[in-house]
Amino acid sequence: MSKSTKKRATAPSASPGATTSRALVAQRRGEATESRAGSKQSHVIAMLQSPAGATIAAMMKATGWQQHSVRGFLAGVVRKRLKLKLGSKKVDGERVYRITGGEKESGSRRASKRRPS
Question: Running DSSP on this structure, what letter comes out for residue 14?
Fold first, then answer.
């Protein structure tokens, strides 16, 4: 039996898209999708909400992610999906990131180029 056949045979019967589709439905309704307590994502968000903020190196150490994954999380999840304002400043030669405010204002300067669904 080949490796791919073994993987298919031992894969769980639940479809992997079920969780994703629930998250998309919640997102379309305007509901915030919450991350589980104790997850890597919730840990990074807690680090960003602290008054001291967090460096990319600290987030990498806490999660085990690579640098590009931390940056992608900041841009894709924190800024876009959660719509949180993320500020950064250089302290002692290192960039420190913090969540500076609540939700972004709904009236943004640029209109989205995406078509409404």
Answer: S
Coil, strand or helix at 39: coil
pTM here?
0.58
- pLDDT, tens digit, for every residue of 65-82? 999 999 999 999 999 999
Based on the number of CB atoms within 10 Å of its own CB, is 70 exposed (0-12), middle (13-18) or buried (19 or more)? buried
Q: Which residues of the chain have pLDDT under 70?
A: 1-35, 102-112
Alpha helix ranges (H) inside 55-116: 56-63, 67-73
Tokens of 70: 């931390």
Rounded Cα distance between 83 and 76, Å, is 9
Residue with tokens 């080949």: 2
